[in-house]
Amino acid sequence: MSPAPTREAPRRLGRPPKAEARDTRAELLEAALDLFARHGYAGTSVRAIARAVGLSESVIYKHFANKQKIFDEVLYQAGTGLLIDQLAVIDPRLAATDPAAFLRTMGDQLLAAWDEPRARRLTSVLARAVGDTHARAIAAAGQVQQEIARLFAGWMEAGRIPTGRATPTQLAWELFTASAFVRLMYLHAEASPETRRAGHRLIRTHVEFIIATAFTDTD
């Protein structure tokens, strides 16, 4: 006698489990990231994102109100979210005991993160966003700059940076703008290994310049 056929577990009705919903959301963001990087905001439609993951548009709208909300999340991952993730893995005591070492570590962490294939696609999205949705790109850049300014403000309050030298916002802007420019020009999805190596050298050199310019003690 042949064994009785196994029966599949019945599919549950109602909403999918939270973990399953998160996977769907992540899948949608990955598809959107790829399309935004290749075609820009204007050249990407909700229908194209849905088609890329084999889902209906109605499923996308369960996770995101519209295309702009999808794009906002991608921009967050490319900017503020990426910075916060990298800061989280640095020993927070280093910021208080050795600001120069903290900045060097932060620079190395960001370079490693920016040079990952997915992050380089995010950089391509940022580069296209300057033309497609200029105001959104400015807002994303401003969030990152504010996070860096908080660090400089803490060092200034602790007496590690002379108060008359520059404001925390100015120092953050000096560090951020040059690094962001190098990221856009040297660490995008189409960059060659040689171009990416040059980008690493430029950012590390600039971090050393900021350290030498800002701090009274750079041991």
Give a written overview of the molecule:
The chain has 219 residues and is an all-alpha fold. It has two domains: 18-70, Homeodomain-like (Arc Repressor Mutant, subunit A, Orthogonal Bundle), CATH 1.10.10.60; 79-214. It has helices at 18-39, 46-53, 57-63, 67-78, 80-88, 93-97, 99-114, 117-132, 134-157, 168-186, 193-214. The N and C termini lie far apart (81 Å). The model is unreliable at 1-16 and 18-22 (pLDDT under 50).
Q: Supply Rg.
A: 22 Å
Q: Proportion of β residues?
A: under 5%
Q: How many angstroms separate the termini?
A: 81 Å
Q: How much helix is in the residues?
A: over 70%
Q: What overall form do the CA principal axes indicate?
A: elongated
Protein structure class = mainly alpha
Instruction: Give the SSE order as H and E letters.
Output: HHHHHHHHHHH
Question: What are the low-pLDDT stretches, counting only 5+ consecutive residues below 50?
Answer: 1-16, 18-22
Largest sheet properties: none
How confident overall, as mean pLDDT?
A: 83
Oligomerization category of the chains in this entry:
single chain
Number of helices: 11
Tally of discrete structural domains: 2
Strand count: 0
